[in-house]
Amino acid sequence: MSAAVFLAPAGELDALTPGARYTLVGPEARHAATVRRLRAGEEIDLVDGVGVRVRGRVADVRGGSDAAVALEVSAVVREDEPVPAIVLVQALAKGSRDELAIEAGTEVGLDGVIPWQSERSVAQWRGDKAAKGRARWQQIVVAAAKQSRRARVPAVGELVVGAALLRRVEQAVADGGAVLVLHEGATVPVADAAIGAGAPEVLLVVGPEGGLSDAEIAALEEAGAQPVRLGPHVLRTSTAGPIAVAVLAQRLGRWDATAD
């Protein structure tokens, strides 16, 4: 079984080398000590969310409000940022289906998330709900990244509405990236979509439970997006994105390498 993963603040692991000692404190240390009940001698990984993974053996554990976990470092791995980045543009959806999508998408390999208020989104992030919703999504992504033992935690961007998404699509295409829109009426499979050599990112646009309107599809195509399909069946918004991410990850060779 792979070692449990705990998240350290970005930058704190940069200077560590094998043989060093690091002490994890704060909420992650309390979780490790009181929920996971770590004991001295156990092997764990610490990650910083931006590509650094520290492996080591627990030397000491202190519980309580000032919890701390001391780790003796055995190895330090620095994982390159994946190119192209796979960014899921997930429409807000009712019944937590959008949350299920970003959770599973993180587990299978997405690199970023953009919440999108589409025309048919029943769920609405208005006023303070936008900041709270984004924070909630980031918590879900962090938990999913730890569950899947990832060293990189995908960032959740600002909510986009209407023309803001079109501007993001135009910029991605102008920079040499690809934008794929899942649509049941498309004829090109996700696996065959045009992705240029050296593309910095692939945006994957997924609509809500009611699907995308004809106007949205037309506007996205005009901005440079490619309509694509997953297969002969219509999937829920909670599953469409993660499956498309998995297909792209396989196509881009991310699943070919053996994990360290």
From TrEMBL:
One of its GO terms (cellular component) is cytoplasm. SUPFAM superfamilies: alpha/beta knot (SSF75217), PUA domain-like (SSF88697). GO terms for molecular function: rRNA (uridine-N3-)-methyltransferase activity. The keyword S-adenosyl-L-methionine applies. It comes from the Bacteria. It is an enzyme of class 2 (transferase). Residues 81-248 form the Ribosomal RNA small subunit methyltransferase E methyltransferase domain. Its EC number is 2.1.1.193. GO terms for biological process: rRNA base methylation. It holds the Pfam family Methyltrans_RNA. It is found in: Cytoplasm. Gene3D superfamilies: 3.40.1280.10, Hypothetical PUA domain-like, domain 1 (2.40.240.20). It catalyses: uridine(1498) in 16S rRNA + S-adenosyl-L-methionine = N(3)-methyluridine(1498) in 16S rRNA + S-adenosyl-L-homocysteine + H(+). Residues 26-61 form the Ribosomal RNA small subunit methyltransferase E PUA-like domain. Keywords: Cytoplasm, Methyltransferase, rRNA processing, S-adenosyl-L-methionine, Transferase. NCBIfam families: PRK11713.2-3 (NF008693), RsmE family RNA methyltransferase (TIGR00046). Specifically methylates the N3 position of the uracil ring of uridine 1498 (m3U1498) in 16S rRNA. Acts on the fully assembled 30S ribosomal subunit. Belongs to the RNA methyltransferase RsmE family. PANTHER family: 16S RRNA (URACIL(1498)-N(3))-METHYLTRANSFERASE, RIBOSOMAL RNA SMALL SUBUNIT METHYLTRANSFERASE E. This is Ribosomal RNA small subunit methyltransferase E. The lineage of its organism: Bacteria, Bacillati, Actinomycetota, Actinomycetes, Micrococcales.
